[in-house]
Structures are given as C-alpha cells and as structure tokens.
Design a protein that fits this description.
heterotrimer, A mainly alpha (218), B mainly alpha (579), C alpha+beta (313), A: 218 residues, Four Helix Bundle (Hemerythrin (Met), subunit A), B: 579 residues, mainly alpha, Cytochrome C Oxidase, Chain A, 3-stranded antiparallel beta sheet, 15 helices, 5 strands
Chain lengths: 218, 579, 313
C-alpha cells in the first residue's frame, strides 16, 4: 500500500487521482502503448491499400520504384535509426538525472529528424519538377504504365502521413527541451520523455516498413 | 495484515464509510461558473457535457427523421424535393451514428460512471478526457458547417464513386468525421488504462462490474477500428481533392475496395454502439431483481468474444456487392457465430430474473423493453445473415427495420435505462416515476408502430433511401409515419419530466435502488473526488446475499494534499482538522 | 396462415424464389417461437418474482453449466442449419445453367438499358421469354447501381469497372418491377423498370421487330414514343416544367448558353450531340448528369426524336 499519511512528501508531478508516482508512470506508458496500437491500425489501412494495388499491378510497382532514390532512402533510414538511438539515450540521461545530457540528446534527435525532413523535401521537389504529382495532377511521361499515378499517389500518402508524424515528433521534442530547461524532469519524473520516446520509436518502425516496400522493390 | 517489526510496513485501518446523505458539497457545486465547466477535468462534468451534446444531436437527428417520415406519407413528392430528401436521410444517419450512438453510453454515461464503479478518483488522463470532448465538439462544428454550406447527399456510407463525384460538401463532412474519430479513440485509450491501472484495492478482474467489462470490450473495439475509419475518410477526401484514383474507377481505382475499408470500421462500430448497452442492462437487471447475476463470466467474456468476432464479419454488408462467393460464405458463417455470444447474454439476463425480487421501476421497465426489442433485432439479423435470403432483403426496408430494432430498440432503450438508473447519482434528484413509465409505454408503442411495418414492406421489396415509392407500399409508410410521431411524443415527455426533476425533483438518497454496486456507496450527487476515502472491495458487485455494510469499506485517504485542512491518521482511519 | 406468409413476400415468379421463401419462413417461424418463449419468460418472471418486501432474500445462483451449454449449443446448431441452407440456396443463385440466354444490362443514372444478342435495345423494359434461364451481364456507366427484381428474389450490384451477373428463370408471364437498390443520386427512387415475361413466340416476335421502323406512323409520333421508351421524360418535361434536365418545350431553334462551350442555336446537330455525347455542352443552371445514349438510340431514331422535338412549343 502506498504512503497515504503525509501531505508534505507529495511530489509536484503526482496527480491527485493517482496513488503514487509508479502508478502514474505505468498508466502513462500504457496509455501511450494503446495509442501506438491505434497508429499501427491507422497506417495499416494505407498498407492494405498498398498491398491491394500491388497485387493488381505488380510490374507497375517494380517499374515505378526505380524513380525513388534508393541512396537517399537508405540515408534517411540510417538517420531515423540513429535518432531512435539518441532518443533512447535521452531517456537514459533522464533516468540518471543528467539533465544536460537529456537536453543534448534531445537536440541531436531533433536535428536528425530535421535532416530526415530536409532529405524528404528534396526528394519531393525533385519529383514535382519531373511532373510526378499525386492523382490527377500526374504528368510525368517517363514511365510506360498508364496506372503510374496510382503508385505515386500511394507513395505520397504513405510518406506524407509519415512525414507529418515526424514533424509532430519534432514539435513534441522541442516542447520536452523547453520543459527540461525549466527543470521539470529528473530521475524521479521523466514520463513525458519516456512516452515521447515510445512515439518516436514507432515513427521509426513505420519508416522501416515503408522503406523496403517503396524503395527496395526495384 | 501481518505484524512484524519491520519498520517499512504501515498498518492501515479498514473501516466502514457510510455515504453522506444530502451532501452540501458535491461535484456540481464544488466549482462554480461557466469557466469551471468549460475547463473542467472532472470526468463527471465531462460526462454531463457529453450528455448535453448527444441529447442535442439526438433531437436534431430525430427531427430529421420526422421530416423524412412526413415526406413519405405520399408515394410522390409531399413537401420537399428529392435532393433535399437525399441530404436529410444522409444527415439523419451520420448524426445519429457518429454524434449520438457511438459516444452515447461510453462518453456520456461511461465517463460519468466508470471511475465511480472502479473506486477511482478520476480517469487515468483527465485532461485528455477534456480534450476528447473538445475534439468531439470541433468535429461537430465541421459537420454542421458541411450541412449548412451545401449539404451532403451520399448516404452515411459515402459509397464511391458517387461520393467522389457528387458536388455536395463531402470533404467538409469527412473532415468532421475524421476529427470526431480521435475523440472516440482517446476515450477508448483513457478507459483501457483506467480499468487496468486504477482499480480500488481488492477490485480484482473477477469482481469487476459487468458494465466495466462491457466498456472495456467497447474501448478495445474503438481503439482498433476507428483508425481505419480515419484512413478511409482521409483517402476519400484525397480522392476528391487530388484525384488519387484509389476508389474511383474513372481514375483506375476500385469502388468495392472502398466498401471493404468502410465496413471494416463500420461493422465493429455497431458493436461499439451496442456493447456498452449490454453493460447497462447487466447492472439494471441485477439491481432491480436484487439477485446475483447469472453467468458472470459468460457475460463478461461474451463481450470480448463479440468484440473479436465482430472484426471478422464486415463482408456481410457486401453480399451483393461483387465479392467472391467464398468470401460471402466465410462472412455469413462468422456472422452467425457472432450471434451466439449475444444470445447467451439474453438467456443469462432472463435467468437472473428467475427467482429474483423484481422491482418494476423505470430502469427495469426499459431493460425489459430492451430484451424484447433487441431480441427481435437479433433474429432479423440472423435472417439477413442467411445468404440466399439476404440477396432478396439487402438494401430494402427490412434492413432499415433490423438496424433500428437493434440500435434504437436495443441501444437507445439501454441508454434510457442507464439514464433513469444513474440519474439520482448524477443529480441527486428523483424524477416522476409515473410519467417515466407512461413515456416508456408510449415509446414502446410508437417504436413498434414505426418499424414493424418496415419488415413487411422490405420483404415485399420496398427499397431503402427511396424518396418516391410505388403505391402498394403507401399503407405501410403511413402507419410507420404515425408511429414516428408517437415516438416523438414519448421522447418529449421524457425531456419534460427530466427538466422538471432538475428544477424541482425530490431529493434522492445515496442508494435509492438498494444496489450493491460501488457507485451507490457514495453520496448523491457524487462528491467532487468520487469518494471521501479509498474504497476497499471484498465482494463482487452482485453479491446481494451480503449485507450492505460490506460494500462500504474503505481506508482513509489524504487526498494527496487536496484537503489541506485535514490531518489524516491512517492507523485509526480518522481525519481531524489541523490545528 | 398461408395468406399471412404470402402477404409477407411478393409472388414467387422464378424457379429459385421458393428456396428463398422457404428459408425465410423457417427463420420467421423459429424466431417467433423463440421470441414468444422469451417474452413469456420476461412477463412471467416479472409477475411471479415481483418484490414482496424490502427484506426479500434471493437465492445465490451464479451459473448452471448444463443449462448454459444447452443454450449455447442448441442455438449454435440452429444457426449452422440456417447457414448451410442459406449458402446452398446462394450457390444456386450464382450458378447459371450453361444454356442461359444472355442479355447485357447497363445501369446509367437513372435508367436501365438492355442489349439483346441481335442488337435490339430496350430502355427500362426488360423483355424475356418465360420458362427459360436468362443470364444478365451487367455494368454501370457511372456510379454503383443495383439491379433488383423482388418477384424473382434476385439482386446484384452493378459496377462501373467490371461486369457482374445474375440469372433467373421466370415461371409465369406477366410484369414484375425492377428497382435500383444502391443509392445513386437524386433520381435513385425513380430508377425503376419492368420485366416483361412473355411466351417464347411473343419474345421472338418482339426481338425481330425490336428496332424496326413502323413506316405507317409519322416520324414525330415515333419520336414521341421513343422519348417515352428511352426514359427521357424522367428528366426532361415536354410542357415547360422544370426537372433534372431542361424541358423540351420550346427547345427547337432556341438560343442555348452553356457553362462549358460557346452558345449555339438548338438545331439537328445540337440534339444529336446531346443524345450521344450528353455532357459536351452543359446548359446554364444544370448539372452534367445525363448518361450517354451511344449504342442505345440509333441514327434513325435520333431523326424521329428530332422531328418530335420540333413539334414542341
């Protein structure tokens, strides 16, 4: 049973409807895990669309995938995996009460995420220049397949949605840096860091599925 | 507790905490002013705000229904144009499903009662809970904008290619639904974590109220299914804005793929709508029979079974749509399977009434109406699951009657049972029992008048979503329309006596029904933090053979610093004013 | 009893209708028996076990394995029977005989076109011989429709990107209504048609004369009949009243201004184009919803229609 006697010992972060910090931490982690399951179902719908169209137009996929730059895709994969490492290190820093380390690792993660988005930006604009646009705006002549716009529509939807999640992650981590600088986190309380880390790992895992399915099938 | 000399073991005194009658302070007056409501993180207030919103949408959707039924008095135009009619039936469906049924028991009743039934002070993420409410509101605003800027005429199912090509305001509407989906998802997340992590001491899984099991199963469905709806409407919006070519054959897409995506959510959605109702019925029947529930584990696990199998039957909406015979066969088979756990519940509830001590108060009356009407809905579902018969009945009024029997005759009756059951806990007031029973009777009559003829009409071939119809169906339509007005009167009566109850109702005690459930062991209206102590559970919530005192046990709680003026002595379980 | 069961369903006019009906009645009867039982239990228990006093003691009955297994297994067996029965009936419904006579069907918003093997075309009226299996090969020109004949107990969605098919064998001559049962827009509820079931001889006669021109009738009169047969007046009035499409009254020779083309005077070419490429020129204030009649109305018929329109002030 928890300590229910003293008022003075209550930590600032502990909400009144939780019995103790452990319960609050466990609840927050569970909440994030359940939310991540919903994200998997969300992207799952797009993966289902991918699978259906690939089963109908297999040769289109292989052809169209050549338009995607495997080198930069690999770089982005490495960048994201690296950022997962640094966010895990940020959590570790928090656990060891090393707030400076926490902030540093968060900044590195943010920078890597930013690099990912920059590379994506150049990938997209390169395609726009060639006329590879989603849906009915597609004008590229370089692929001899009448349904080429479908592959790229799926490509844009999947990587676009993923990119939005990366941007949200950057926003969350900037918020964490702000809070860390204000001294909110310590080895006693680093829940937001932990659950943002979980979110970030999912963003990474989704990319690890996207990358081979879109880039490596040629 | 074991006695040792180890210095770290605290002894906590468990004692009885009788609920305060006529409390001066409770959650409704703990904080005052409009802003205290708009910024509240109290699950009870959030539940009430949801309740107000869904009542509003039920009224709106209901009026739309009355307009539809009035137009259908004559075989050709009565007083509105075809296009208007099409928009109105679309809205009636979308509003009733997304803004009323899906949030009704989980968000309105569930938010209010779940922490109380668990002995918790609130849900796991109260601020997220408030956010869910505002997300619901924003989704509603987008939808209202869609309605008033061009309307939408695709049917609530938004089938492509019509929805990808029609000039009506599909994008705004799908955006509203997309946003609304997040409200549903976040409520589901909140409930799952609260049930797992915040149960009172002694509240093991085998002592959970069946209402909690039902909300748990519902939350699982919400969490898994709603994201797929989100992607579906997102893809539809992209189809319209960018011409992506996923669902529109003119662009190389497949319209049947849309149907698979859509129904993959929307079939589990109907279980989101009904399973919480099952939970309410379990509570009401047990309480008003003053008897332990029959088949506790059967009822608890059947909710989970329905949740699981419910994800595998979506194709039964598509028997005529062009899916393979093999797929149709599998879906038909699984559809029959999902009916079995539901049937088991009905039998268990009947068995609970057997040799009970039945008090026919309004909640119990609604529960019995539920048993009757939902059983009809269930049997007609069996009819629709039979492949060769469904070919004849699909997209006719038979289907319309079936789903109104399960959703209105089932879910809405259960919802009304829940409202009438927990009303004293929510407001500390009783309502007029006589008028409540009258309203129940009128609703029962009006409902059957409206929807029973629709089974016959449908079997005779009357298609649904029809603005005009051939003469032979007119008597059915007219009878149905009269029934709908009777239904409307019933609901107006409910509104009338409920408002009267709020203004001048008799004061309710903490436990007017003599229930053993935990939420009744605290005062009415509920205290700001639900309990003035930490409840300790030693019995199941349906153990009517145990004395009431055993359900009011607890240990003193320091409120984590909220009651600064108190010093709590946990060894004796007493609280004293600080000097 | 028979009258009640007959009342609930349309007359059974195809060879397979009775299978659907038999299962329908079986499920109804068993459901009603169970419903009566459950209702009786509800009412009886509510009365017999009504609360006598606040001190009532109720027995602690938590479960009963035998009972629970019984009421799980028996319904399971019953639904499996219904499943098997429904499935076998369904397989008959989707397996046409090899010698079925094929007719092609096109669903367009908002009429049905039927194309026969000799090139004959009919709109909104499906002519078939009695006692002969008919297979319909169906597709849509635009959105999803659904072809439903209640008397035959057949229904199938009609899709824009593929063919779907149903088959039936009509057992008596007469007329049966066709409904569209997939919501398809404003005039969805007006998209009905008729199945004309006739003897094989009558059918052969009709088929041969299908598109023959009746020289004894003036062209304008033939045109009037064509306008009615092809479902034009579902959307176009002849008396000036407004509809989904512009009225034919006063059309001939009028100045037409469009949303997507330069204005023209309504002449032969304009009418012909409007029939064959219906959305090439959309009149101000109207939506581009008219389906094309390419392949449905031939040149001879277009001429007759033009003559008819000329007579409309």
């Amino acid at each position: 049973m928890s300590d229910t006697s003293g008022v003075q010992d209550k930590p600032k972060h502990l909400k009144h409807y939780f019995v103790d910090s452990d319960q609050q931490f466990e609840a927050s982690k569970m909440g994030m895990w359940v939310f991540l399951v919903t994200e998997i179902l969300f992207f799952g719908g797009l993966f289902a669309a991918y699978i259906v169209y690939r089963s109908w137009y297999p040769e289109l996929y292989i052809q169209a995938s050549t338009e995607l730059d495997t080198f930069w895709g690999t770089v982005n994969t490495a960048v994201l995996i690296g950022s997962s490492l640094t966010v895990a290190m940020a959590i570790r820093s928090a656990q060891l009460n090393q707030i400076k380390g926490l902030i540093t690792n968060l900044w590195i993660t943010i920078s890597l995420a930013f690099v990912f988005m920059v590379i994506k930006f150049f990938e997209y604009t390169h395609k726009f220049d060639k006329g590879i646009l989603p849906g009915e705006y597609y004008t590229y002549e370089g692929l001899a397949h009448e349904k080429a716009n479908i592959f790229f529509s799926i490509y844009y939807m999947m990587t676009g949605l993923h990119g939005i999640h990366v941007i949200i992650g950057i926003g969350l981590m900037l918020f964490l840096v702000y809070k860390a600088k204000k001294g909110v986190f310590s080895s006693e309380y680093y829940t937001p860091v932990e659950i943002t880390g979980l979110y970030w790992h999912l963003v990474d895992v989704i990319w690890i599925f996207l990358f081979p399915l879109l880039y490596l099938i040629d | 507790m074991a006695t040792t000399d180890a210095p770290n073991i605290k002894r906590l005194q468990v004692r009885r905490f009788k609920p305060e009658e006529s409390p001066k302070e409770h959650y409704l007056n703990a904080e005052k002013g409009l802003w205290s409501w708009l910024s509240t993180v109290d699950h009870k207030r959030i539940g009430l705000m949801y309740f107000g919103s869904i009542a509003f949408f039920f009224l709106f959707g209901g009026i739309l229904a009355l307009v539809l039924r009035t137009e259908l008095l004559t075989p050709t135009q009565s007083f509105i144009e075809a296009e208007t009619y099409n928009q109105i039936f679309t809205l009636h469906g979308a509003i009733m499903i997304f803004f009323f049924l899906v949030p009704s028991v989980p968000a309105a009743l569930g938010n209010f009662i779940l922490p109380l039934q668990l002995g918790a002070k609130d849900v796991a993420f109260p601020r997220l809970n408030l956010a869910s409410f505002y997300i619901y509101t924003i989704g509603a605003i987008f939808t209202l904008i869609a309605i008033f800027t061009g309307g939408i005429d695709t049917g609530w199912t938004f089938y492509t290619p019509y929805s990808a090509e029609t000039s009506s305001n599909v994008i705004m509407m799908t955006l509203g639904i997309f946003i609304l989906g997040f409200s549903s998802i976040l409520t589901g997340v909140n409930f799952i974590v609260t049930i797992h992590k915040m149960r009172a001491p002694g509240l093991t899984w085998n002592k959970l109220p069946l209402n909690i099991w039902a909300l748990y199963a519902t939350s699982i469905i919400q969490v898994l299914a709603t994201p797929v709806l989100a992607i579906t409407v997102l893809l539809l919006a992209m189809e319209r804005m960018l011409g992506i070519g996923i669902f529109d054959p003119a662009l190389g897409g497949d319209p049947v793929l849309y149907q698979h995506f859509f129904w993959f959510y929307s079939h589990p959605a109907v279980y989101i709508m009904i399973v919480p109702g099952f939970g309410v019925i379990s509570e009401v029947i047990s309480t008003f029979s003053r008897k332990t529930i029959f088949g506790y584990w059967a009822i608890a696990l059947s909710s989970l079974a329905i949740a699981f199998i419910g994800f595998l039957v979506w194709g039964h909406h598509m028997f005529t749509a062009g899916q393979s015979s093999l797929a149709s066969m599998v879906f038909s088979f699984l559809t029959f399977l999902v009916g079995i756990p539901t049937g088991i519940k009905i039998f268990n509830w009947l068995a609970t009434m057997y040799k009970g001590s039945i008090d026919m108060k309004t909640p119990m009356l609604y529960a019995m109406v539920f048993l009757f009407l939902f059983t009809i809905g269930g049997f007609t579902g069996i009819m629709l699951g039979a492949l060769v018969v469904d070919i004849h009945l699909h997209d006719t009024y038979y289907v319309v009657a079936h789903f109104h029997y399960v959703m209105m005759g089932g879910m809405v009756m259960a919802f009304l049972a829940g409202i009438h059951y927990w009303w004293p806990k929510m407001f500390g007031k009783m309502y007029n029992e006589f008028w409540a029973k009258i309203a129940c009777g009128i609703i029962f009559i009006g409902f059957n008048m409206t929807f029973l003829p629709q089974f016959i009409m449908g079997a005779q071939g009357m298609p649904r979503r029809y603005y005009n119809y051939i003469d032979q169906f007119q008597p059915f339509h007219q009878f149905s329309t009269m029934g709908s007005y009777v239904l409307g009167v019933g609901f107006l009566i409910i509104a009338a006596y409920m408002i009267h109850s709020l203004l001048r109702g008799k004061e309710a005690g903490s436990n007017p029904w003599g229930s053993r459930a935990l939420e009744w062991q605290t005062s009415s209206p509920a205290p700001h933090h639900n309990f003035e102590h930490t409840p300790v559970i030693i019995n199941g919530p349906y153990d009517y053979h145990k004395p009431m005192s055993e359900f009011q046990l607890g240990i003193a709680h320091s409120h984590n610093g909220h009651h600064e003026g108190e010093k709590v002595d946990v060894e004796t379980g007493t609280a004293q004013e600080k000097a | 009893m028979n009258r009640l069961t007959e009342y609930m369903l349309p007359p059974a006019r195809s060879t397979l209708a009775s299978e659907t009906d038999a299962l329908f009645h079986f499920i109804n009867v068993t459901s009603i028996i169970l419903l009566v039982g459950i209702t009786f239990a509800i009412l009886y228990f509510a009365w017999k076990y009504r609360r006598r006093s606040e001190d009532d003691v109720t027995p602690v009955i938590t479960h009963n394995n035998k009972l629970e297994i019984t009421w799980s297994v028996i319904p399971l067996i019953m639904v499996m029977i219904v499943f098997g029965w429904g499935f076998s009936g369904y397989m008959n419904l989707v397996t046409p005989p090899d010698d079925a006579y094929e007719i092609r069907v096109e669903g367009a918003s908002w009429n049905w076109r039927f194309f026969y093997d000799n090139g004959a075309v009919s709109v909104n009226e499906l002519n078939v011989p009695v006692d002969r299996p008919i297979k319909l090969i169906m597709s849509s020109t635009d959105v999803i429709h659904s072809f439903y004949v209640p008397d035959f107990r057949v229904k199938r969605d009609v899709l824009p990107n593929r063919y779907s098919s149903i088959w039936f064998e009509a057992t008596e001559t007469g007329q049966s209504v066709i409904f569209c049962t997939e919501y398809c827009g404003e005039q969805h509820s007006n998209m009905d048609g008729i199945v004309n079931v006739m003897s094989q001889d009558e059918f052969d006669t009709w088929l041969e004369s299908g598109n023959a021109v009746d020289e004894s009738v003036p062209p304008a009169e033939r045109g009037e009949a064509l306008v009615s047969q092809n479902g034009c007046n579902a959307c176009h009035s002849v008396d000036g009243s407004s509809g989904v499409g512009p009225s034919f009254a006063g059309l001939w020779g009028s100045e037409r201004t469009f949303q997507n083309a330069e204005p023209v005077t309504a002449d032969e070419n304009y009418i012909r184009e409007s029939i064959l490429e219906s959305n090439a020129k959309i009149l101000e204030g109207y939506d581009p919803v008219m389906p094309s009649y390419q392949g449905v109305i031939n040149d001879q018929q277009i001429g007759d229609i033009i003559e008819y329109i000329k007579t409309l002030e």
